[in-house]
Every structure is written in structure tokens, then in C-alpha cells.
Amino acid sequence: SGGDITAVKGQLQHVKYIHATDNAFAAILADGTVVTWGDPESGGESTGVQDQLRNVQRIYATDSAFAAILSDESVVTWGDRAYGGDCTRVRAKLQNVREIHATSEAFVAILADDEVVAWGSQHFIADEPLAKFKRLPKQLRNGEQVCASRYVLAATFGDTAVVSWGHASSSWKAMRFENQQNFQTVC
Hints:
mainly beta; four-stranded antiparallel β-sheet; three-stranded antiparallel β-sheet; 13 strands; disordered C terminus
């Protein structure tokens, strides 16, 4: 699913970036608008939010939903609500969004003041220690690189430390590298 672009082929002009869920695609065009195609339940249908998809800076994807950061640092979501396609519960908090990270079933936004906002799969979020964080722990602030796997997030600090947190973990875990040559990049 998602491979047939016939319906949107004429709209795919001046494409800057393409992002994907498991079964849908979202293209950011040069003018900051978005074109979607593929499985409607996986984010291939965005007509419900199309009027909000203006001045899109970045898009992130879980397995079945998309989240876009706009130029005003707010967020628009679409796709399967169980995978983060509906941020209604946290929408008021999604202002001054610095970055978003996506696991398979949930999104995590880090705001300019280091507050953490998570939404998506209630099973995933309810079990996540991340849902309990109001702000990034001091040790996680100013991480140089944050990345997400299916169930876990990790941050790098300089060339000697990695901190991870997420599924099946009650808190963040840190690992320091004695030999900097063994540490290149996490993601």
C-alpha cells in the first residue's frame, strides 16, 4: 500500500522531503505544503488537516501516523490515532516545539524549555517512564543527538556518553565510553 501515486502525481512538484509510515507517504513541497498518499489509516489521507499543513518545516512518522512541525513551532498530526495521529489530549502543550522523535507507536516532543510531551499508543505511553517526565532530566538536556528505535530513545553527549530511556525501563540509563575511538554515532 502507498506505492500508487497516480492520484497525486500532478501535485508532486518541487518536493523537498518525503517521509513514510509503514503504508503511506508524506511529501513536503518547496512552498511548505504537504502531499500525502497511501493507506488512509496510516496517514495517506490528510484532508482533515490539509488547511493546517502550511509552512511545514519537518515531518516525523510512527508506523501509522505523521506529525509535522510548522514554522510557528506548533504541531499538526494525522493518521491512526492509536499511533499518534491524534494529539488532541496534548495539543495545548505542543507550542515552541524544538524537536520530535518517533518510536513505532508514539511521538515524543521536546519543547524549547525542555518539557517532554508524549502521545500515541496508550499502552505504550502508559507504560513509558517518559510519560512521567515533565522535563528532560538534567543529565539529558543539551544532548547533541537524540534518536528513536521502535521502543526506546537515546541521546549522545559529546563523544563519550549515551543515555537511553523508554519501553521496559523504569528510568534513564547512562553509559560512558572510556575509549572514544569506539564511539562514532548512535543513529
